[in-house]
């Protein structure tokens, strides 16, 4: 198994920090952390010489003050605003003053701001006094541990927050680093590694997705790579069927069977798909994709029951999710061992499992547990939660995939990976990453329709496999 980029929640980080602190000299972790911040600051300054520190009430501010100390020793002019002067880190402040650091009321003109307002203990958005200082910044911001105002464990931004060009974090990555925009993220080793067990969340990087992507071996034929069944679309709206079938065809070399009322439209666009008008004639498949454009009437319910009874992994999207929300008895058709991947957007999620709320990871986990299914919650950050507690997250670099039909492509990709027998959490995670990369490559900075995203799938696979 290829290791993924792990992310640890604040409670776990604190527990690990405590164990490390018990066996190293007092203050040494902070100084290592601060030295890393100062090194990054020098790089961002690129020869400029004026740094401003925003210093909060805790150790995050202590890191900033010690970074100011190291920067002063390199001849940089450093001034600091203390947001809570009586609570500012005493040793850090003394060291900063000792080397000529100045404490001021306002930062004024500087070339770089170091955000040491709040770190792991952050709760809620920036408070008004801190928000006031942040609102007037012109210079780029280097965040200490995380951009202040963003929730460390959920990445939620519920009010004023720092926008960072770079974040220097310590020991390990925290959820915020994958769930929110932290600029470039750098990790400074402070020796937490041995104290950290498995991560709470993980992020797949491009090379990992490329390595997991199924490719045919010398012994493979169209059947051995898995046959994907697509039950989507309608005669009036064949688009969803065409997109989902196309995605399944482009994702792997396995065969694709389409079953439904859009058979003519699908056949015209994808002559290589085996098309039938009814799911009862579809033949054997190794996975089903059901839901996009399917409708929610009685015949659609019968289709949903058939795929849930088939005993092969299923990806359910769009109308399939609505049907399950309206009629939970439909779940009875499923053998408890049949893997199911649900791919709701927020409104579909709400129909199925209630409010998403600010903690999208917790929301995906809740639904995964409730339905004993893999839940892929769509969004700028896609969260994939497995019923076993595993969570994968993927943050898209832009929002170009937020367009009609884009979800149909995603479900086809997932279906093909399920047919290729990828673990369902991994199938959903790899498909989400590939989908985001295809959107980015197809877009190149301009809006694109879902068919262009689909057309970029082979290019995205090539890019991930070579990365
Ligand atoms: N432990 C270690 O080994 C190491 C730790 N390290 C560093 O310590 C950091 C954690 O430090 P920490 O725990 O002292 O708290 P920290 O995040 O600075 O918060 C301070 C106070 O701010 C307040 N506050 C809360 N929310 C707020 C908001 N929205 N807006 C404004 N203020 C807000 C709240 O105080 P309150 O005002 O509520 O009393 C809170 O107690 C960690 O991120 C890393 O940088 C590194 O040096 C490596 C070694
Ligand atoms: K910070």
UniProtKB/TrEMBL annotation:
Keyword Isomerase attributed: yes
Family that this chain belongs to: In the N-terminal section; belongs to the NnrE/AIBP family.
Cofactors named for this entry: K(+); Mg(2+)
Domain of life (superkingdom): Bacteria
Family matches, as Gene3D superfamilies: 3.40.1190.20, YjeF N-terminal domain
Entry binding sites for (6S)-NADPHX: 59-63, 119-125, 145, 240, 293, 345, 408
UniProt gene name: nnrE
Family annotation (HAMAP family): NADHX_dehydratase (MF_01965), NADHX_epimerase (MF_01966)
Residues reported in the UniProt entry to bind AMP: 378-382, 407
NCBIfam families referenced in this protein's UniProt entry, alphabetically: yjeF_cterm, yjeF_nterm
GO molecular function annotation: ADP-dependent NAD(P)H-hydrate dehydratase activity; ATP binding; metal ion binding; NAD(P)HX epimerase activity
Annotated K(+) binding sites: 60, 115, 148
Species for this entry: Saccharothrix coeruleofusca
Binding partners and assembly: Homotetramer.
Protein name as catalogued: Bifunctional NAD(P)H-hydrate repair enzyme
Key words, A-Z: ATP-binding, Isomerase, Lyase, Metal-binding, Multifunctional enzyme, NAD, NADP, Nucleotide-binding, Potassium
